Structures are given as C-alpha cells and as structure tokens.
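Pasting as-is:
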Amino acid sequence: MTDRITLPGVGDDDNRTLNGLLDQLGKKKTRNELRSAYYDMRHAVRLVGSVIPPQYWQLGIVLGWSGKAVDILARRCNLDGFVWPGNDLNSVGFAEVWDDNNLDAEVSQGTISSLIHATSFVVNTTGGDGEPEALIHFRSALDATGEWNGRTRRLDNLLSINARDDEGKPTALALYLDGRTVVAEKDSSGWSTTVQEHPWGVPAEPLPYKPRLGRPFGSSRISRAVMSYQDMAARSAIRLEAHSDIYAIPDLWMLGADASIFKNADGTQQSAWKVVMGRIKGIPDDEDAQNPRADVKHIPASDPEPHLKALKQQAQFFSGETSIPLTSLGVSDMSNPTSAESYLASREDLIAEAEGATDDWAPYLRRAVVRALAMKNEIPVDDIPASWSTIQPRWRPPMYLSRAAQADAGMKQLSAVPWLADTEVGLELLGLDPQQIVRAQADRRRAQAQQRTTMLAAAAQAARQGSPVSAAGGIGGVAG
C-alpha cells in the first residue's frame, strides 16, 4: 500500500484519483522493476541444488538475452518522420516540433520502454520561458500510469512522478486531467500545488506493446517465459563455468599410498593447484606395507558437451519465444544465411513483430504530434482542422535491404509508373533517405534556377543585339 498524499488546494475527487493512481503504480512496481533488472542484466539467478559449489553462483554470471529480445526488435522500429499528403507539414511548425523535442531519438527511447514494461506514455506540455512552445516527453511505466477509457479509447487521466527522495517516495508529480494539470512539489514544509487549465483535454497517450481486449496497456516483451528461459540458460552457463574448473581435470585414485607425496620438503601440504598441475609424480615403494607398490587408477575428465547441448536447447526455446534468430544469441555454430530469400525467411517472424509493434504505436504518436502542433499554433483541441487527421507517422521498413536491391526494386516500380520519378515518393522508392531527398530536391531547384538565369541572360543579350527569341526559349533566326 502506497502512502497517501493529500494535495492542498485540490478537491477530494482529484485527491482520490491521485491516490488511486499511486496505488496502481505501486502494484505494478515489483514486476516492472524485475523486468528492468532483466533488461539491465542486474538480475542474479537463484541457487538451485547443491552440486555446484556456492562460490560459482556468486561470480555474477549473467546473460543479456532479455535485453537482446528488446533491442533487436526496437532497432527494426525506426520512426523516420511524419507525412501530410497534399500539404506542407512545415507550414504548421512541424520542423520546429521535431527538432525542439529531438523526436527521432526520444521516440526510440519511448518505444524501448514500451517493450520492457508493456507500455510507456507520451505527454504534451506547453513550454515556459526560454523553452519551445510545444514540448513532448516520454515517461516510463515505472514513473507513470493512467486510467484507460474503453469507450473513448483515450486516457481519462495520467499521473507522472517527476522526482523521488532517497526512499523512493514522490517529491514532485504532475496529474493530467481533462482540461487541467495539477503540478505538485514537496519540500520541508509539505506539498505545494499549482493548477493549470488548458484547452487540450488529457494531454497524454499510452504507447502499448501488443495490447488486447482486457489488457489495453499491452504485454511486456520480457514475458514470464522469456525470464524463465534466461534463468535456465544462466544456470547452464554457471554449471559450465564450474565444470571448467572442477570436472575438466582427470581424477587419479591411488591405492596403497599415503598423503606424504603431496607435501613439501618442510612437511607442509602442497597447494591444490600444484598437485593438479604437477606433471611428474613419484610414489615410493613401502616394503613394510601390505601392498608395497601403490596402484594408480585413472578416470578421464568429464565432457562439457552436455552443458553445451542444454544451453543450445534453452537458446532454441528463447528463440522460439522471441522470434530472434538462433545465431543472434551466440550459441549456434550455424552459418548465417547467404541468400536474400533465406535471410528473410530466418527473420520473417521478427519482421512481422516489428510491423505489428509500429502499427500499435502509430495512432498514439499521431495524436501526440497533432496535439503538439495545436499547442504551437494555439489551437484548442476542439478546433483542430479536419485536414490534420491525415497526418501520419512514417516508419522505416523493418526489412533490411541492400541499397542495390532497394534501388533495383524502385526502378522496376518507376518503370511501371514513370511519373513517380518526379515525386518525393519516387526518390524514396529508389532508397534515398530523407536528408538525401531534401538535398537532391534543393540541388534540382538550384540547377533549374541557374538554368533560368542563363536563359534570361541569353534572351537579354539577344534583345540587345536585335535578334528575336524563339518561343522555346532559345535564340531564333530572323523571321521571314
């Protein structure tokens, strides 16, 4: 149960909403922190059994498979920008919103947090003195939560914890309500509150990964199965490490000898590594013993192959759960696919997963950007132009193609529809990135302007010399 907070100057309903969201955040805290620990490789597997000496479990051996499951998918979900068919986005200030909020990098951070915790949140605020007019921030599910309205398919509210003390208790927060934002800070004298009214509804959106009926905030990429398989593999890696020290050395059994052969000249016991590493050993005969000559039995070292097989099998379980190719987990001796068809086949599930993830995030990112543009242009949410509904995010294709293959495919499409070659879409089909497209169009405009300047200069020269200019723009002959 989270400690209750009562904010001054705020009604009972808002305080009940605040504490309800704090309880909701507290209930998810343990699982969210556990998944963060798996992603950050800070989770230690539990000791199971007593065969392996405890010190090997204390070596801190970890696997980064859970982080790989998140990152390898996130790297295929890249936002290249937004498009507004038939209109100029920059005419309503999109370039400033994109640059001021560093959206190309911030969106990536928000989607990574979404994959780890099932959802993250994107929040719109207006800037203060010396800040951009419209701000977009992303919040992790560790510090933000809200209530989802299934009828409006929007958030009814959102709580964002902006600062905590050494004990993890909130010292600064923002409660986003419909048309109001409650900002509160705590110091030695208690909580102070500021209420800001605005015309932009609840200025927040979720970014859920794999939402479904009954779970509008989605599911984590680091599922229980993923955590279980990683723990199994980590235990196998620990056993393999212990095997290298303990079981890889052959056993020697000496019958009829005493421990004196393992002592130094001064009678002290030799260290274990000297006994193991000694290559020439002598056992003297004892004529007074029942067995004068010692008998040595050799037992070969055990093979580590069972541990490696177990690790590979667990990697296959993990690969099947996350759609990650087995070769990406570092335990497969198979070569990478050489043909384009085999490469795509090996990553078909991962490509489909990336397409599904961007489809889930797209409508909420669109709302956030449209709301930011409304804030920048001081347009209330109810007065946003209907034409803005066609603003959409543009995602980079999750399927990696070489530049040659992409250009070849683009040329085939342009051959079927030649007029596309003169459009921005045509340049995209040829594989040019947004910066290259902007530079190419600027160079083209510059060349056209230079050409027009040359033609005008030629026309002026011809006029001074009394030569008429042809309708095509060149210098014509004297009319008959």
